[in-house]
């Protein structure tokens, strides 16, 4: 099914109003959570590119932790492993938008495959350098080469945006599904990487992640019938103009930066909390509960029809809910009960996915179609930068504050900062409107 090809492009079928029928009362008549998802996956080609993209996206939760386990196990230094992965993260933040710009200009199939091949060679080079004891600088150079990995989630969202460019409700459902898929990959990826590296050999996680990435991108790129067409740029909209100069986009990226800080600090603080309470092996389970809550909320949010209010106002409400629910972990940490903290993390995660979904909806509406991949990659870059800053801030708080429980104030503060940025930039600014998708 994944290899099903066709030459002609696919567009979403027109939606015709259903014939009126006499209303009959039934308590569950209007609650059909799977109906919106059946509708978007009824479009030919969507199941094929989604399956291929999920295969390509799973390594995003594998490669980083696999590199840490591989380097630390071989060189005996977590500091070196952390420095190498941080270098790769910084390189990705720099190279990612350029790769996305090339994809927008020349198409997904022409750019994603060679970019992924180069990134795969970087992963294999890292594996060989670690295995054969090459100098430390080769590890940094090899991992930096993986920065050309294309934003697979952004390419999938771009296809949904093209197929449903005239249907905001369907785009909302598709973005919700994509956010839940991200959460699933970040939930399963570390578990699979740890299992491979600890049960087989230290290099197994990196090798499997590189193979899955290359295979998935090849299959995804072969789905030409759903690929968005390359937009011809005009003199009024130069292809060299960065989306950062578009009105309304920088404030969104600021909120994404703060949201990334929530994720980064929450991960470090939770692992430290589990270690301090003698349940180090349960740290991953606590983080999985947060991701599970976010993924479930994302799927439910996608099943609901968006309200008639403006997306900006809906985004404000989502960030407010995220800031409120992120107060639960520091409160639960005062009880000194891991079970209470687990429940708090599950509830806290339920506001992050709706915030991300609504934010992606806004980015798609404020970015021209010819720069959609670049715009969404900038959002991912902001998230990655926030994760790096949040990890550093969470680690500092664990070491310098009174215990790991107190350090949960860092993700709560990051959520409050995200709400502040959204509040300060909520008013619509005058200026040229960006063409809607």
UniProtKB/TrEMBL annotation:
The chain crosses the membrane at residues 54-72, 78-99, 111-134, 200-221, 251-273, 285-303, 315-333, 339-363, 375-398, 404-424. Keywords: Membrane, Transmembrane, Transmembrane helix. One of its GO terms (molecular function) is transmembrane transporter activity. This is Transporter. Pfam families: MFS_1. InterPro entries: MFS, MFS_trans_sf.
